[in-house]
Each structure stands twice: as C-alpha cells, then as structure tokens.
Design a protein that fits this description.
heterodimer, A: mainly alpha, 4 helices, 83% helix, B: 198 residues, mainly alpha, Four Helix Bundle (Hemerythrin (Met), subunit A), 0% strand, elongated
Chain lengths: 89, 198
C-alpha cells in the first residue's frame, strides 16, 4: 500500500475517489446551506486541481498553461459560489 | 560526496514541457470556456428558481452520478498509466491501459443511458421545467464529449497495438489523454453542481 501511495498518480486517484465518496455522503445526509455548499465547492476545486496537475501533467508545464487551466477552475468555482451566495440571501 | 558528484552525469535543467500538441490545448480551452458558460447559466438561473431547482434535484439518482464520477476518474487514471507506460516503452501496458480507460467510458455511458431511460420513461423531457431543461442539456452535452473521448481512445488503442507509441513518440497519445482528462474534469464540476449542491 505504501509503495502504491509513493506514486503521485496512484495517490491522486485515491484522493479523487475518497473526495467523490465524501460529496456523495454529503448528498445522502441531505447537507444543505452555506457550509455544505462551500465544502462541496472546495472538494470539487481540490479534485479539479489534481486532475489538472497530476493527470493532465501540467505541474511541469509552461506557467501560462497552468495559469489558464487553474484559472478556469478558479473562475468556475467563484461564479458558482457567487450564484449560490445570491440564492441564500 | 565529491566522488558521487564527479561520476554523476550532468543533469540538465528540467525543461518546462507541455504534454501533447499545442493545438489540443487550445481546443480544450475552448471546450472548458463553453462549459464555464453552461455551468454559470445553471447557477445564475437557479437564483431565480431556488425552490424548483432544490425540489427536482432530489429526483436525480445521486448514486448513479457518484458511480459515474468514479468511472471517469478511474478511466482517466488508466489513461495516465498508458502515457507513463509509453514513456517507459512498455508496449503491452500502453494498449492494456487505453482499453481499460475505454471500458470505464463505456460503463459511464451504460449508467447514463439507464438514468435517462428512467427519467424519459417517467415522461420527463426538456420542456418539463427549467431544472430538467438544464439537467438534460448539460449532461447530454457532456455525454457527447464522453463519446468523442472514447472514439479518440479507440484510435489510440489501434495505434498502440501497431507499436506506434513509445518514449520517443508519445505526442499523439498525450494529446488524446489530455482530452480524456478534460471530460473527467468537467464531470467533477457537473456532478456536485447538478446532483448534490443545494
């Protein structure tokens, strides 16, 4: 298991699965409101970043492409957060 | 210490490397922007129909949505392993992992079709209400991307069987892999947004 986790790709896969089950669990217990929305967006952000850096292998790519892809993730998460914040008011 | 340094080959400064062809990254960027518009349209339209969205979101199959997330993540993982195998010239592992990634995509489509069959069977359509209009159009647009990703994986698989890819020739494989990861990335946002968050 520890040899499995030394590989950054395997580690990313395991974190992605655990994060997915966490979001599913929050749905099952009927989590609602600001805290759960923020938690799910943070989880989605972490997952997206792992896919960009470890699956798309942009960790060592030219900075411009890292900024473009990670910037997309920040933009989308922020817009969703703003929209949900408006709906909670 | 001095000895070790003197025998060690001069280590070149690692160059910044973008996997695959530059063109595929511009294509991915365009696709991501299109989905950013759809995701925002969903989230901001919801602000005017919060009760409706919250009510009908409860009718979605969260288990199917989560299972599909796991399938796409695992499919992506296999395709990364295929690229890594190409860098090590392990021919058999390249095609095996591409095939496993393709099968994960196929399983995603089966789960999605069963989900659609259940919804359409209940008489739900795009015109039922605003929530279902978004649910059907967003997931179907993504569905088409899974199909395109699988077509790309099928081509990569045939090529890999002919020994096309290796440590000195992995650009095509990396380009296709990047597109497949994009399909995964989009679903990672779509699943919590449409199925869970309220």
């Amino acid at each position: 298991m520890s040899a499995f986790l030394k590989n950054s790709v395997h580690r990313a896969w395991l974190i992605l699965i655990i994060a997915t089950l966490t979001t599913w669990y929050l749905g099952e217990v009927g989590a609602t409101g600001t805290a759960s929305i923020v938690a799910m967006l943070v989880i989605a952000f972490i997952k997206g970043r792992l896919v960009i850096l470890d699956f798309m292998e942009l960790r060592d790519a030219p900075m411009m492409w890292r900024i473009l892809l990670e910037g997309w993730l920040i933009l989308v998460s922020s817009l969703i957060l703003i929209a949900y914040w408006i709906s909670l008011k | 210490m001095t000895d070790t340094l003197s025998v060690a080959p001069p280590s070149p400064v690692p160059t910044k490397h973008l996997p695959g062809d530059l063109a595929i990254w511009f294509f991915i960027l365009a696709e991501l922007l299109a989905f950013a518009v759809f995701f925002s349209a969903y989230a901001f339209t919801r602000t005017n129909h919060v009760e409706l969205f919250n009510l009908y979101q409860q009718t979605l199959d969260r288990n199917a949505g989560a299972l599909n997330t796991i399938l796409l993540i695992t499919g992506s993982w296999f395709v990364v392993l295929a690229v890594k195998a190409a860098h090590r010239d392990e021919q058999k592992a390249i095609s095996r992992n591409i095939l496993l990634g393709f099968l994960c995509g196929g399983a995603f489509l089966v789960v999605k079709v069963l989900e659609y069959a259940e919804k359409f069977g209940a008489g739900i359509s795009m015109s039922t209400n605003t929530f279902y209009m978004f649910y059907i159009s967003l997931t179907f647009f993504h569905f088409m991307h899974v199909i395109l990703g699988m077509v790309i994986l099928a081509i990569l698989w045939f090529q890999s069987r002919q020994g096309v890819y290796g440590s000195h020739h992995s650009n095509g494989l990396e380009s296709g892999a990047a597109y497949w990861h994009m399909v995964d990335l989009l679903w990672i946002i779509l699943f919590p947004l449409v199925y869970v968050m309220h």
